[in-house]
Amino acid sequence: MQSRKERIIAERRTKARKRKVTFAGATLAAAITASSFALTTNEAKALSGTYTVKEGDSLYRISKENGISIKELKSINKLTSDKIYIGQTLEVPVKLQTPGDSLQSAAVYTVAPGDTLWSIANRFGISVEELKKQNNLTKNMVLIDQKLIILDNIFYKKAKVIGAVDKQTVEFISNNNHFVLMVPYGTAHTYQKLAGKEVIVSYKNGALIQIQ
């Protein structure tokens, strides 16, 4: 039987090989738990589709069907009144649902202490310019607790938290399979309080995006 250290080393080698593979773009809708975070206007736009107003529609009905408030719907579409007209195109967030073990197209990452645009982009295997473009950023800086959209090839998995491996990786177990995910350097110990807890993790490029 492999020791924990041997298992982690083997897992890292497997992930290193997987990172060399280019994945096809995901076409599934983003699946984000509604109670996990509050979308800003920019985030909602980044995770939005379009809806064409039909006869009998109202802001109340459209907002209810799409799981947001009238205020959020008006903010996303820069509406100054509750009036809408037939044929009008509105931006609406994608349908929200609870993710399971699956491949999705978007997730939201919360900036941690010590993060920079470069370190975040590098961890998720994308360029700084791509990260800035996805989030409508004009400057090369981010703030702690700022929300960033991470797009394409996002994996969701139900798992149990085992605990910190070192300063930059956290171990999980799912269906009796152990795996480790990178986190911002120096933050792994903060996940110890979740040891033994069943969670849903979203990750990309072997790096943790969010725990729900």
Architecture overview:
The chain is 23% helix and 29% strand. With 212 residues, it is an alpha+beta fold. The longest helix is centred in the first third of the chain and has 15 residues, at 4-18. The chain has helices spanning 4-18, 41-46, 59-65, 70-76, 117-123, 128-134, and strands at 48-52, 89-93, 102-110, 147-164, 169-174, 177-182, 198-204, 207-211. Helix 3 packs across helix 4 and helix 5 packs across helix 6. InterPro entries: LysM (IPR018392), LysM_dom_sf (IPR036779). GO terms for molecular function: lytic endotransglycosylase activity. It comes from Cytobacillus dafuensis.
Query: Could you report the average pLDDT, rounded to the nearest whole number?
Result: 77
> Which of globular, elongated, flat, extended, rod-shaped describes the shape?
elongated
CATH top-level class of the largest domain? Alpha Beta
Supply the number of structural domains. Answer: 2
CATH architecture name of the largest domain: Roll
In total, the number of strands is: 8
Number of helices: 6
The profile of the biggest β sheet is:
6 strands, antiparallel
State the distance separating the first and last CA atoms.
31 Å
Radius of gyration: 19 Å
Q: Give the structural class.
A: alpha+beta
Strand percentage lies at 25-35%
| CATH domain fold name of the largest domain | Membrane-bound Lytic Murein Transglycosylase D, Chain A
- Range of helix content: 10-25%
CATH homologous superfamily of the largest domain?
LysM domain
| Low-confidence runs of at least 5 consecutive residues | 16-47, 95-99
The H-and-E topology, N to C, reads as: HHEHHEEHHEEEEE
